[in-house]
């Protein structure tokens, strides 16, 4: 035993010495290389230096899936060990039962495969390659009435849709259905997080399209401010007003007045603003292009990002101008809203300013909005996405 230990020690010393000798010879060859000439240094300095690369942040969903897959594999291993121990303990009890357990299909150990809910059934879609699945998911993301993704512009545009154009496409990419597909099984959850799918969603949501992001495309869609267009922003306002009693003048009467402000945005730069007393259950389905009613105005909107704020606390300012009410032809209205920082949701808007412009005198008059409340987003399934 001592002789073997001594031989192992001597062999280890020889390997360490040889490794150090190789490093020293490599350092000597580097030191003996000739220094570059002055002309060479001048030529190299004239070349345009590459821009510094922004360190890429890890994908949050991929990291979470990796952690969950490891936990799932460990759970399956513990379950299989328990079944093996149970089968070993009952081996002498019933040979038929043991044979049936051994012939049972193995437990699903990989989260990148599809397993049937019925053990006797087959799963033909499990044989589809990932490229085919990505193509299918791209069709899931695109609205059904549009052959391609419709750009959702955040800037002022002059595009006016045709009267008969289907407005379901104006709600943008159907990322809700994409997330529903990801809930089916582990493999579809992993496939629905692929970069090409979320890159298409991001390019269809933001204009100009985001070219370089320091994180994954899905994280960019979650953290970059955006106006949601598959629903309506609703502000519920209420105040009390003193009245008179017809029967008894000594009785003090207070009336509670409740009204709603609705804001719906479209990707072509248009928006609708509706001030009414109709409840949301009745009003949101009527808020479509072409609606003409009292208190409804149509205008244009564009968004300005809050510069200097960290990504987690960055919001945006939405400016609405040329807001016209057909019943008030001599005036236009301007509205300034602030999109609160809420990554992934973007569901609250605060009214900062509201004013009217007299088209004849060019007089701008601020409109009091002391009874205004924050707008809260509500998804409307009838809009299509």
From TrEMBL:
Q: Tell me where on the tree of life, at the top rank, the source sits.
A: Eukaryota
A cellular component term from Gene Ontology for this protein is: cytoplasm
Is the keyword Metal-binding assigned to this protein? no
Disordered: annotated span: 1-59
Q: What is the lineage of its organism?
A: Eukaryota, Fungi, Dikarya, Basidiomycota, Ustilaginomycotina
Q: Where is the composition biased (Low complexity)?
A: 23-32
Keywords of the record, alphabetical order, are:
Ubl conjugation pathway
- What's the protein name? F-box protein Hrt3/FBXO9 C-terminal domain-containing protein
Instruction: Give the signal peptide as a residue range, or say none if absent.
Output: none
InterPro entries found in the cross-reference section: Hrt3/FBXO9_C (IPR045464)
Query: PANTHER family, from UniProt?
Result: F-BOX ONLY PROTEIN 48, F-BOX ONLY PROTEIN 48-RELATED
Annotated organism of origin = Malassezia equina
The question of whether Transmembrane helix is a record keyword is answered with: no
